[in-house]
Amino acid sequence: MTTPETPELPVTFRPGRTRAVLLALGAAMFTVLTAVAVLLPRLGPGERLSFILTGALVFAVLWVLARPRVVADGAGVTVVNIASGRRLEWAEIVQVRLRPGDPWVFLDLSDGTSLPVLGIQPGVAREQALRDARALRALVEARSTADRP
Description:
- The protein is an alpha+beta fold and about 150 residues long.
- It has helices at about 15-40, 45-65, 125-145; strands at about 10-15, 70, 75-80, 85-90, 95, 105-110, 115.
- Helix 1 (about 15-40) runs antiparallel to helix 2.
């Protein structure tokens, strides 16, 4: 097996296809609901506004679902999941795991916990997720050992 190249820092990993689908769907839903609000002649102002606000709400929810990413820089890794974000120093990350059947990458941390990383998920783009997981693993191996005494 070949050793993956360590990417240049800073690097951002995110599920590109999933993000594109979610944002395109959100924009389409907002556009359709706004068009319905404008084109239906029997709607009152409050009903028109409710259609537009519903479209905006759908877009906002899909935008939040498209948020996950992993940003690696010289000082560490920032993991942004759907509702939370966490900054980790390189030395805090013990291992990067992506086992067959896992929905996303997991980081095993030095405090004994495991952190899900939704920014690398093999669901839609399996090969890209495997490349990203290998690259993150190579970064962790290169950086973590340098930071440990």
